[in-house]
Amino acid sequence: MCVLDSVPAIMSVVTSSLSEDKQKELLSLLGHVRLHLLHKASVHGFTALAFHNHCDNQGPTVLVAYNASGFIFGAYSSKDYTQEGGEVCDEEAFLYSIHSGGSEPLRVAGINRKCAFIDGVTGPHYGALVFLHQDTAEIQSNPGINFTFQAAEMHGEDLTLTEFEVYRVEGLGDLLDKPWRNINWTPERRQQLMKTIQSYKPDIKTVKQARAVLVGPVGAGKSTFFNSINSVFRGNMTSQAIAGTAGRSVTTQFRTYTIKSGKGGGAVPLTLCDTMGLEETAEAGLDIEDLVHILNGHIKDRYQLNPLTPIQGDNPGFNKQATLNDAVHCVVYVVDTCKVSLLTQKMLDKLASIRKKTNYLGIPQILLMTKVDEACPLAAEDLQNVYRSVYLQRKARELSESFGIPLSCVLLVKNYSEELELDQDIDILLLTAVQQMLNYTDSFFENQVDEAREAIDPQELYRANDRIRPVSFE
Ligand SMILES: Nc1nc2c(ncn2[C@@H]2O[C@H](COP(=O)(O)OP(=O)(O)OP(=O)(O)O)[C@@H](O)[C@H]2O)c(=O)[nH]1
Ligand SMILES: [Mg+2]
What we know:
Mean pLDDT: 88
CATH topology of the largest domain: Rossmann fold
Helix content: 25-40%
Radius of gyration: 26 Å
Largest sheet: 7 strands, mixed
Number of helices: 14
Low-confidence stretches: 467-474
Bound molecules: guanosine-5'-triphosphate, magnesium ion
Shape: elongated
Number of strands: 19
Number of domains: 2
């Protein structure tokens, strides 16, 4: 279970120093929440200024200080830091300590009617504990001022910090009484979805199957989504597409995958195209020009994508004879639900520019939110909670807004990531996503000009369409 997000820094991702065990202990004090790392002093600086730059106006936060004596301690407050200078009352605030000795975490509530902290320009000032004292990796400890504790129990009287982190604390909320989307979780529904998908026929005679492309940030679960769909139809776990985690995109080739139903069985009428992950910078990850060529069917299977040089017309990987069979009929954006609030403006801008080009080409789009199991413990416990989780609904709305895509086009899934056996609930969510892709593909076909719809020769058909498609393929 990942209830903790890392933060993108300038050059690399800044990660938490909390071990899994210590995370659990901290969460036992905070309840049903997710933590988002805002500030890490070893990277951003042990100064009040750096702290306020990252942590002001962030809502509930928890400070996590580490010392060389093995103490992890700090303060939780439900109120903002703003540097306004006043005393802040917060009945929910507390100081805490987790010692590596393995004893129960220490939780210290404030003394009645005393303020929780002073909201000044210094480091966080909880009276009894002042962090980043005088812009150094030190704390000042004055037990009894507004919190009472034994110094030895709180920090072992070791006032020098080896690390200091601040996390935004996001409540995960509970379950809605009624799901915001109705899913029928029965074996019959699973069978029905499989049958509908297997018997799908494109609305245009010359087009043999639907073609969808998976687009999204590095590590979002694009390749794993294909593997998962393939597994559902195969009836056992498959891992044809290489998936995993690395700083950069694991997928570097453009791949077009067919899905087989059963071992050696017939192909499901859907080609899923897997692409390199998107990165923020212009010179890294999938290039938008290459993506447009993919959308128009010009890039051949196994073409080695190069973020620095988009494909040229004379490249052997360039398909000059593209037909509507090679073009993409539905774009599927894939986003990791755990990372929704970490999507940077640069990434959102990149996605917006892709969306603009895709809209221009008249290609329908859906958005898959993956890793719902990692994002929400309630969904991990029981996947049928997926459309009842207040947290996941909030994330879906947040993404729909920042992406500018209607909520009706947002689907939640859990890919097969660690399982060895198929699971009916996972299958139903995955198949629902595929069914939606096929519905949207139909909309794409319906939008083709009549001449194109009736053309017999696919090349002729594509030419007819090209009149409404602004990108040339000569
Ligand atoms: N728990 C969980 N893990 C997932 C899920 N989907 C993907 N993963 C894991 O996330 C990691 C990245 O998945 P990939 O499928 O390689 O991601 P990708 O989008 O293809 O990444 P690039 O090719 O690098 O752009 C893998 O370790 C997967 O096992 C999911 O729904 N739940
Ligand atoms: Mg991949």
